[in-house]
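We emphasize that the prediction below concerns an isolated chain of 184 residues; any contacts that depend on oligomerization or on bound cofactors are therefore not represented. The input was used exactly as deposited, without trimming of termini.
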Amino acid sequence: MDNKTFIVELTKALAWPLMVLVALLSFRKTLLRLLPQLTNLKYDKLEFQFAKEVAAVEKEALASLPPVSQKSGLEAIRQKLTKLAMTSPEAAVVEAWRYLEAEFLELIERRNVDVAPAVRTMPRLLSAMLYKEGLLTEAQHDLVVRLRDLRNDATHSRSQVVDIERAMSYIESVLRLVGSIHDS
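Result of the prediction step, given as a token string:
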């Protein structure tokens, strides 16, 4: 292969990738402005829906629940979950959810609510029951449902990516919910 043929073949091979790169660079400001608006982005086996939903849940928690009081004793849990999030964000999401489940069980014990043993292992049903009993507000119950769905996405979806920032956001929402349950 001579030099001219090589240059022609190289140009053919690089034409489309260079055009895509030029287009991306030309529209980068517009694309960056639109990026937060995405609800679902899928590329091959990678999917970015978790981040948007976690942000929505955190916003809902901030709007509907009071801040966590310093007396609540949640700082040790926050530190433990934060440390876990630094090494395994998915595991931190799961542990935060497990902590919330334990809080439900503690609440039914504290309030002497009669719950069948099988219901104790079904957090969604348990939270619905606590809501019906007046021990959870509608906002708290809605957050429980959304947090559970996020936990399921993080643990059961092979395509979900949970980064440290999203795990921390999830943890803060759970702790805010737990704090509001403690205060009720």
